[in-house]
Amino acid sequence: MSVENSSSHALITMISRCLSGQWLIEPNWLLQHSDLILRADKGDDMSKLWPTMESNLLVQSAGAFAAAGKDETIGKGQALGVINLVGPVYKYSTYYATSSKNLVSMLAQLANDSRVGGVKLIVDSPGGMLHGTREAYEAVLNFPKPILAVVDGYCASAMYYMVAGSNRIVATQPSDQIGSIGTYRTIADWNKYYASFGLDIFDIYAKGSSQKNEEVRQFFESGGKNSELMQKQLTVYNDQFISDVKAGRGDRLTGKGQDPMEGRIFFPNDAIENGIIDEQISDSETLGLLSDMVATNKQSTIQMSNSKFSTFLTAMGNLVKSANDEQETPEGAAPTVEQLSNQITELTSARDQALGQVTTLTTERDAAAASVATLTNKVTELEGKIEVLGEQPGAMGTKVSKAKDEIPKGDGGQQTLRQVIDDLETEKEAAAMGF
Questions:
Q1: For residue 235, what are the CA distances in angstroms to 26, 59, 238, 323, 417?
Q2: Residue 175 to residue 171: CA distance in whole angstroms
Q3: Which segment, 16-25, 133-142, 400-409, is predicted with the most confidence on average?
Q4: Hey, is 25 helix, strand or coil?
Q5: What is the residue extent of each domain of the chain?
Q6: Terminal C-alpha separation, the chain
């Protein structure tokens, strides 16, 4: 293969890799910058040709903004963070692309840095990978400080998705392009490409994998005519994309001009008309605008704090007034907090008294049960003695002293042992107690 063919093959392979899977990207940008991407893909030093994704702090001095010194003392909210978002969007870091994961991490650091009052995002990207984009969007949307997204070329597809939650989005040149809100997938039949070199490719699936890659096989087997399953999958992604953009921009979407949710890309004037950006200013004005946003945010925070404190004082005053109000509640009126508290106290006292009575009754029951057990043992003991005495010889009956358990003589007839026991006073006491 010639050097020229080898380079062409590398370029085609690189572009295919960039577009594989589900993408939110403006393809024209990729074609325009394919030479740079190919050089970066080969490992060439791109440090002087391609801005890296980095975060910097700027401070204002003598009316101008400059990078903060390493050991410079910066007051609370006095610095502005700046992040470059240049090149196609990947989920994880590559040298020649923006990483959605890195953006989330950088914003988290700036959110926790008390010196930072707001953040400027410098944007020049066609979009990129779908996965990871929504996480970055949420990080921007929920950032606790003002964010200004500044377009410096492209702000398309996945990149627009990521910055849609910014407090403001501005263009800096009339040639900037914004939008391309939509989802698509590029798929190549590499089997035909390899077949042109005499190399046949075969795919073999396990018996239980009949639906694996079903959407791709459906597409190829139909000669590219049946994309139903692919479109169904892409629609799920796209619906979420549009829903989040609408949530991020809110009522700033005007409904005027061409509908930005159908995938069109716009120049600034049209993007301002339909509301996907706020305005066009020069790049030199962006830091001043962000400073104003920070100042406005501080003022809003102070006003909110004062409002909350005033509400607190009013509530406390009403509580004290209510506590000091000794008037009786008019008939039919709702009871006061004090009256309800007194009722709770009375009911609690009554409950405790009842519990005390239960405890006393339980103690008495246990004592009675112990007495019955003692009497029962005594009866059993006497029964044994009677049986022994009844078996002894002699004409005269056994004399017993008259005591509490004396056996009654009866009318001269003989009594059974059961009758004798039943006539005992102790047995009668036990029967009276229910035993």
A1: 18, 45, 5, 61, 98
A2: 9
A3: 133-142
A4: strand
A5: 3-298, 337-391+399-432
A6: 111
The contacts of residue 263 (CB under 8 Å, 6+ apart) are 179, 180, 181, 182
Return the closest-CA partner of residue 83 out of 44, 111, 114.
Answer: 111
Contact 211, 188 (CB under 8 A): no
Beta bridge partners of 64: 61
According to DSSP, the residues that pair with 98 across neighbouring strands are: 89
User: Which tokens sit at 125?
Assistant: 């990207």
Q: Name residues whose C-beta falls within 8 Å of residue 257's C-beta, 6 or more positions apart in sequence.
A: 270, 273, 274
pLDDT in tens, 83-130: 999 888 888 876 556 889 999 999 999 999 999 999 999 999 988 888
Q: Measured between alpha carbons, how far is 376 from 372 in angstroms, rounded to an integer? A: 6
CB neighbour list of residue 421: distance below 8 Å, 6 or more residues apart? 379, 382, 383, 386, 427
Q: Which two tokens stand for residue 221?
A: 């087997």
Q: 133: how many CB neighbours lie within 10 A of its CB?
A: 26
Token couple for 187: 């798929």
Looking from the CA of 187 toward its CB, the CA atoms found within 13 Å total 17
Token pair in block for residue 77: 């909210």
pLDDT tens sequence across 56-69: 888 776 677 778 77
Residue 27 gets which letter from DSSP? Answer: H
- Superfamily of the domain at 3-298: 2-enoyl-CoA Hydratase; Chain A, domain 1 (3.90.226.10)
Amino acid letter for position 196: S
Helices (H), 44-146: 100-111, 133-141
Residue 263's φ and ψ, nearest 5 degrees, are: 105, 0
Burial class (CB in 10 A: 0-12, 13-18, 19+), 172: buried
Give the CA-trace dihedral at 403, 406, 412, 414, to 10 degrees.
Answer: -160
- CB distance 160 to 180 below 8 Å: yes
pTM of the model: 0.62
Whether 285 shows a pLDDT value over 70: the answer reads yes
Say how far apart CA 232 and CA 101 lie, in whole Å.
Answer: 27
Calculate ∠ Cα 34-38-39, nearest 5°. 120
Q: Which amino acid is at 172?
A: T
